[in-house]
Predict the structure.
Amino acid sequence: MDEKYIITPTPAKNYMGLDEEYSSFKKSKAAIMQVPYDRTTTYVHGTFRGPQAIIDASRYMELFDDELNQETYRIGIHTMEPLEVEKLSSEEMIEKVRASIAELLKSNKFPVLLGGEHSVSIGAVKAFKDAYPNISVLHLDAHCDLRNEYFGSKLNHGCVARRISEICPLVQVGTRSMSKEEKDFLGSQANGKVKMINVYDILDNPMWKDTVTKNLSENVYVSIDLDVFDISLVPAVGTPEPGGIGWYETLDLLRDVSKDKKIVGFDVVELCPIQGQAASDFLAAKLIYRLLGYVFTGKK
Ligand SMILES: [Mn+2]
């Protein structure tokens, strides 16, 4: 792709390009943590470019949210320097993420984590479990990620939900791909710790969103693998799967959950940018802003 198609002159540092007044650590309620980790990706590599692509795209969004009729940025959104994780093992990266999220929670910041591959979420969930013992995880993903081990590692991105299910209850939404091992796990050992609402449930049952909220505890961490969206909306992911969910039904779900529960943090992972195709990056940037808006509605 010819470089002239890329309008952004230099990589942006700040989500939405916010001024100091709305992005200093001290004054911000939310903090964006970038974790450009991409070591166990099995198909398309490049998720380490995800956080920067989201920050770059975010500069072209309106500061006014026309659905919520509010200027969510006024809560203050701080962008942290990217975590240095490129050369770390999965164990080391997860511990670094856990410690960084724990620090943010101590400072009363609302963490937003940008991946990177999905294994970054394990560190975040560990930190949230320490801070909120009754936490549960809402996991949006095309894949159920319930393998005990994948490519020789228990911390592979394909094992994320299995590891999270060992920490706290998990509700999965939008899945449409699984192995026989994962199917068997759901049928036997999951022991009610994992509730799955797959795409067929979404198509068949108009009350599917109620099933989601019913199975979540009061405090909720949301983990969004962007491949949950249909590939026509978000083709730039590490493991694209056809038949995903749409923008408005995803927003409907997140709006419902934010009203019924307390969302205490979230991540957006697995963006694998395609040069010259900005739609996926922009959707991710806007999804983050809208979800922050839901969480902080009326709390500016
Ligand atoms: Mn996935």
Remarks:
- DSSP finds nine helices and eight strands in the chain.
